[in-house]
């Protein structure tokens, strides 16, 4: 009995995605990247040295869960700034898509376009869905001021994620004092 078509249909209906590589471990250096933001400016991991960085990967601009996640980060942006933490979102969408998404949702933080999929690969979040489509899985990383991964969120629910990251960031900072 052939299961190929059945498994493909089941994967489509359940949203199963297959990982292509493992994410970096907590305590290891965060992988470097060089990507453009929604305005066309280039950003590198080294630009964030000396600050806490919340690096969140998400599948697509203008989708319900991705919009919820981004808007919750927006709504907590001042709390993150009080902790000297910067927020950066990354997806495989291009700069024009990011520009529209940021404008429509009044996002006051950087969105990086990983169209070549380099960051998604190096952070182990690139997923192939049904063998034909690639997306960045919804995963987040807290990176400390020295560029070390302090926390990895492998299973993220969009709603409430920003508040959870904020609480964990406070705990991480308290533990290091």
CATH homologous group name: Glutaredoxin
Indicate the CATH class.
Answer: Alpha Beta
Strand content: 25-35%
User: SS-based structural class?
Assistant: alpha+beta
Main beta sheet: strand number and arrangement?
7 strands, mixed
Mean pLDDT figure = 89
Order of helices and strands: HEEEEHHEHEHEEEEH
What's the helix count? 6
The CATH architecture would be: 3-Layer(aba) Sandwich
Fraction of residues in H or I helices = 25-40%
- Determine Rg (CA atoms, Å): 16 Å
* Total beta strands: 10
- The backbone outline, from C-alpha atoms, is globular
Alpha-carbon distance between the termini?
61 Å
What is the quaternary state of this protein?
single chain
How many domain regions? 1
Biggest sheet strand order reads 3-2-6-5-4-9-10
Unreliably modeled segments: 1-19
CATH fold field value? Glutaredoxin
What would you note in describing this structure?
The chain is an alpha+beta fold and 177 residues long. The chain has one domain: Glutaredoxin, CATH 3.40.30.10. It contains 6 helices and 10 strands; from the N terminus they run H-E-E-E-E-H-H-E-H-E-H-E-E-E-E-H. It has helices spanning 4-14, 64-75, 77-82, 95-104, 118-122, 161-175, and strands spanning 17-19, 34-37, 42-44, 52-57, 85-91, 110-113, 126-129, 133-136, 139-143, 149-153. Strands 3-2-6-5-4-9-10 form a 7-stranded mixed β-sheet. A 3-stranded antiparallel β-sheet has the order 1-7-8, with no helix packed on it. The longest helix is centred in the last third of the chain and has 15 residues, at 161-175. The N and C termini lie far apart (61 Å). Mean pLDDT is 89; it is low at 1-19.
């Amino acid at each position: 009995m052939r299961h190929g078509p059945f498994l493909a249909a089941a994967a489509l209906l359940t949203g199963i995605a297959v990982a292509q590589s493992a994410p970096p471990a907590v305590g290891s250096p965060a992988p470097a990247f060089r990507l453009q933001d929604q305005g066309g400016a280039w950003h590198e991991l080294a630009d964030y040295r000396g600050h806490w960085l919340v690096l969140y990967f998400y599948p697509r601009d203008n989708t319900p869960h991705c919009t919820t996640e981004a808007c919750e980060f927006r709504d907590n942006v001042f709390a993150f700034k009080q902790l000297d933490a910067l927020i950066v979102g990354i997806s495989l969408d291009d700069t024009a898509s990011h520009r529209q998404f940021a404008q429509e949702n009044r996002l006051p933080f950087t969105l990086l376009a990983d169209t070549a999929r380099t960051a998604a690969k190096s952070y182990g979040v690139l997923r192939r869905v049904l063998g034909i489509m690639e997306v960045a899985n919804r995963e987040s990383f807290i990176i400390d001021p020295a560029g070390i991964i302090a926390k990895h969120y492998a299973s993220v629910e969009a709603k409430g994620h920003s508040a959870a990251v904020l609480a964990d960031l406070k705990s991480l900072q308290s533990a290091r004092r």
